[in-house]
Specification:
The structure holds two protein chains of two kinds. By secondary structure, chain A is an alpha/beta fold. Chain A contains four helices and seven strands; from the N terminus they run E-H-E-E-H-E-H-E-H-E-E. Chain B is 41% helix and 13% strand. Chain B is globular and about 55 Å long. The chains are: A alpha/beta, B alpha/beta.
Chain lengths: 155, 160
Amino acid sequence: MDPPARPRRILAIASGGGHWVQLQRLRPAFEGCEVAYVSVYPDYADDLGGCRFYTITDVSRVNIRKLFVIVPQFICIMLRERPDVVITTGSAPGLIGLAVARLTTRAKTIWIDSIANCERLSSSGRQARRVAHQWLTQWPELARPEGPHYWGAVL
Amino acid sequence: MIFVTIGSMFPFDRLVRRMDEVAAATPEETFFAQVGEGGFEPAHMAYARMLSRTDFMAKLRAAKLLVAHAGMGSIISAMEVGVPIVVLPRQARWGEVNTDHQVATARWLEGRPDMHVCFEDEDLPAVVAAALKARRPDAVVDRTAPKAFTDKIAQFIAAA
């Protein structure tokens, strides 16, 4: 018999509000995995019941000055967590998280664009094509054969 | 209690001001508002600029109605705890948001159970009054995404 597979390590990233609430609805997908979460408000740890949680600086769109803060934060998190999978429901901090994961780890990355973007992908979502192994929209109308793909929605 | 939230610090005085008028006209009801850093200060509602996630959820659970911007955080949180919602989308033309995605969200949500959509703030008093009288659905929304979606993500994780 094969030895039992080691639990997959997941890093799950979301900025505030709807991005975080949508990420929480995906938790059944992480069952049996070792999950650490990243968001922008320390009190979000209250939703987690003891999972590891990191707070990073919020950035709206990509602001060069804040990149000097958030990129080192993500590098530290990647070195500590050594994730197998990095998943994000947006927004800009999630995009930067996926980019740092691609540069510093062998993790597979997933971008899930917010369900709020029903007519057009968010600007971070459009850029995520370049850093996500799986690039997803929650709206079948926005899916294309070359991506973004549609696997379902949080509601 | 009727809980009013603009979802973040980013001002949305059009909602707060109109709900303050509703509160003034409805003395039999209590109101609590999260108002962000807008310039308008409610005179007829207790309020906070911002609430922690824990305080937000406690207020929401105690509320009979949520009146909110059309942001998914407020909307999904209310659905999960079974509180009916009135939404007024933020609009780019008033500088309340960068794009009109909240108007699109509100159009998509219109007609869902426990969801009362209002596109113009002058309609808010009537929509709030109707929401308070509306019949409630029997079913509560699940706290998790549909299994077909989370299963696909789980497969991706297992293959990584």
